[in-house]
Amino acid sequence: MSTASKGPARPTTAELEALPLAPPAATGLREVVRRRYLLGMLVRNTIKSRYQGTVLGWLWSYLQPATRFLMFYFLFQVMIGRGAGTIENFAIHLFAGMVIVHFFTETFNGGTQSLVQNRSLITKLPVPREMFPVARMLVAAWHTVPMLVILVIPCILLGWRPDPVGMAAALLGFSLAAALGLALGLLFSVGNVFMRDVGKIAQTLTMFVTFSVPMMYSYTLVEERFGPTGAELYLYNPMAEAVLLIQRGFWTGTTSDPAATAEVHLPDHLFTRGLAMTAVSVLLLVLAQRVFARLEAKVPERL
């Protein structure tokens, strides 16, 4: 009995490895946007692989941040009180910062490892290699959405209502984190191809982000301990600025007097600093893409 044809068989891993290196492809972030269908497939496959073999699947992206927030709430709101007696709704203050720090670190670390982890695709398919760090940034954004949902729910219960200034602040904070994270992801990803220690350096750097932003402590504490000059130097950290922006968007609106909270716990010229640092991060992204373009031709043979 003859069997119906099922189409051409998919190549095995050994057959893929035997293929010659792919010819050079058009490069650049603009080319990545032009091939957004392929980019979307890469993002979906990356997300699916993360939850492969689990029963709850993507629901874990909600359960894990929800559990983390409840732990913070119990510890700081119930057991300790108001964040050691200094910050109202400290759990919101902490979790808001954690949302944007998570987005940045996952973009940075994921982008750094993206070329090495996709070596089989890079060496065989003629695609712009910037696509892989960009895909990891989009995956990070996808995982950040559930954290935002978990953040918004208690904010609403505590009386928060979205306001244009606050939403603009949060959007600016995410834009800053996205541009900076992608720029560093591009630079470190190509560096990681030539020297694997670069990936370890990236992981070490992101460990410091959690402690170098006003998340587990307030910006006011920085001013008290280090004075105006020290606080000014502290604000040169772009992620500290990003955290303050998202706290302006969500946390301040949950306090009993949002205007007074913003005046006391947020620095002056918050938006001006945010816009300046976002512009610098975009410039760094342009420079990172140029460095990436100069080195990417050697990536397939080094992988």
From TrEMBL:
Organism the protein comes from: Nocardioides renjunii
Record-given protein name: Transport permease protein
Keywords (A to Z) from UniProt: Cell inner membrane, Cell membrane, Membrane, Transmembrane, Transmembrane helix, Transport
Compartments where located: Cell inner membrane; Cell membrane
Membrane topology: Multi-pass membrane protein
ABC transmembrane type-2 domain span: 56-295
Domain of life: Bacteria
Main location: membrane
Transmembrane domains' residue ranges: 55-75, 87-105, 140-160, 167-189, 201-221, 270-288
Family statement: Belongs to the ABC-2 integral membrane protein family.
Cross-referenced PROSITE patterns: ABC_TM2
Pfam families, sorted: ABC2_membrane (PF01061)
